Amino acid sequence: RGVQKKKKLRPIHLVNHDNAWYVFTLSEHKEIYPSFSLSRMKNIKLHVTTFPEHELSIDQYMKDSFGIFRGTELHKVRVKFDSFAAPFVQERKWNESQKIKKRKDGGIDFSITVNNLIEIKGWILNWGMHAKVTGPKELVLDMKKELEKMASFYK
User: Fold this and answer.
1) What's the 3-state SS for the chain?
2) Could you read off the pLDDT of 71-130 as tens digits, one per residue?
């Protein structure tokens, strides 16, 4: 982060996520495919080195992801959205675990299982007062801490 490093990558899959290109690569660790943002790359050189073809089902690999980041621990995220946000939230499906329950007040109860909390936290924060995280406890506490810090900027 913020430090330039020279790396030799073995690219196996290219993905456009949220209007940004990422390359998934082979690593020494089986079942782990690090991703790198193409926009952060500088002085790219093509090498003549070849390596065996590798099959990767990107859909299977990313099945519990909310975006491009992956983690190793699953989190069942639960969020209450009000009637303003509900129609917009219902328009998109992030992964197969997503569930939406409509409430009488026009809002929805949204749940999804993800393997990383970074991107979903940012997405929830975008909804401001129209979203309330109800689980997991780790995310509830993280949101509270983040919002307290943000509120201190305006005192």
Assistant:
1) CCCCCCCCCCEEEEEEECCEEEEEECCCCCCCCCEEEHHHCCCCCCCCCCCCCCCCCHHHHCCCCCCCCCCCCCEEEEEEECCCCHHHHCCCCCCCCCEEEECCCCCEEEEEEECCCHHHHHHHHHCHHHEEEEECHHHHHHHHHHHHHHHHCCC
2) 889 999 999 999 999 999 999 998 999 999 999 999 999 999 999 999 999 999 999 999
